[in-house]
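Two quick folds needed for the group meeting slides. Do the first one here.
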Amino acid sequence: MIDTKRRILLKGSLGAGAIGVAVGAGLLTPRAVLADWPAAAFKAEDQASALKDLLGSDAVEASDKVKIKAPDIAENGAVVPVTVEADVEGAKSISIIASGNNTPLIASFDLGENAIPFVSTRIKMAKTADVVAVVQTPDGLLSASKPVKVTIGGCGG
């Protein structure tokens, strides 16, 4: 038992040491490893700015092809379950916006070429507001929204 734990510790230490040597020698730079992300879009204080920074346009068209599922009343704004799906061909990305938050862009999911346009996650909402889903397609941006009432302890708010 102790021998197994010691072996795991030694293997982990060896791996961490090898990565440290590679970084120190300049063979592995964090810039080459870390993905680029649209910081300006996630720091934007309004929906239009966030969409322009993220997708290049804020011209969204409401569509019944985009379906958003969220609770009517969320008892805890810290964990609001949201599911978005779209019945469109060639969807490139799905973004989720909580319009009442100080920084409304919550998440953006880039989809692969043959991916089914479906995401499910939990978001944080500061107050009662609309949750907006924006699906990027080759023809433009499609959206749907759903009002979610955030309560404190289920007592109203």
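Then this one, please, same format:
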Amino acid sequence: MAAFQYAALNSRGKEQKGVLEADSVRHVRQLLRDRGLVPLTVAVTVEAKGSGSLWSELIRPSLGVKTLALVTRQLATLIAAAIPVEEALLAVSEQSDNQRVKGMLLAVRSRVLEGFSLANSLSDYPKAFPAIYTATVAAGEAAGHLDLVLNRLADYTEARQVSRQKVQQAMVYPIILLLMTVAILSGLLGYVVPDIVKVFRDTGQELPGLTVGLIAASDFAKSWSLAIVIGVCVLIVAFRQGLKNSIFRLNYDRRLLHLPLISKMSRGFNAAQFTSTLSILNSSGVPLVESMKISGEVLSNSWLREKVADAAVRVKEGSSLNKALQESGYFPPMMLHMIASGESSGELDDMLSRASSFMQQEVDLLMGIMLSLFGPIMLLVMGGIVFTIVMAILLPIMNLNQLII
């Protein structure tokens, strides 16, 4: 059986969409007629592998972190209750109100019913289930502990969701301040300052340097504001396109790892991401070298991905994990010491998990400090700009009063 997406008209003439499992399109149409529906369109749910074309890449279904965590937790609970995988997938799909998610889960179920493993079926949807997910599920199936592995994956995805929400919530206030600063500055330079400056120009008096500079800034903003906006948009688009180039992205990521403050954030975040993924994969029975390769692929920094790939080669050649990562020169010493301790004591999985928690705490602390400082800094900048504009307006008035006296 396969999963089909349909659109049909009900008895009231309203369009109704959904997903059904059936043997063929003809079977789906018959099932719809049995329900009193008039079929409009019936199509097989989007296959993830497809033809490999750009269009097939764009229409591949994906899952948000929150949805992925919920689906994983539900699957883990049902499988732990000794419910077969195909029935668990059906139950989870029925729990979902999202037709796209429901169709994808039913398509995965149809693959499982055909004899494929769950990991193999999930790998058909790489945008929804990343490499770490499918590799961990495969290891869980091989070891016979699929429920435990799925619970760990649910914990992992939920932790990612919590971390992302913290960053988003912390960024709200600084972004509002930044937008307010830009809006106030644009309003003052574009509308308020020109009207006031006309009065000074009509008097014919010599203006202070600060006022002259403000007038020049106002004239520049009025004359070139559109060009500036277009230029900024072009630069952003060009930068985003440049990041798609592997060489440009590699150089950019390498420079990030050497910038003050940003480098500490980038290294800490990637180290936490790497150790967390490596801990899950290695404890799930995935060989260390393969775990390193997969963990390296999920890193956001391409330069570190290459360094992890080089470290995996050295581990394959017989080097210890600690020494292989130390040779890259980019991973925090505390993380390396904890890995070395885990290797010597035979508790690498536990130490990787602890290292991940420690690095994540450091990143969260540093992020909190940066965001807490950003707000006051923006207030000082905004206050400084307004003060400068006010002084540039008041100085000619004070000079004019002295001439009258």
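Slide caption for protein two: The first helix runs from residue 25 to 34.
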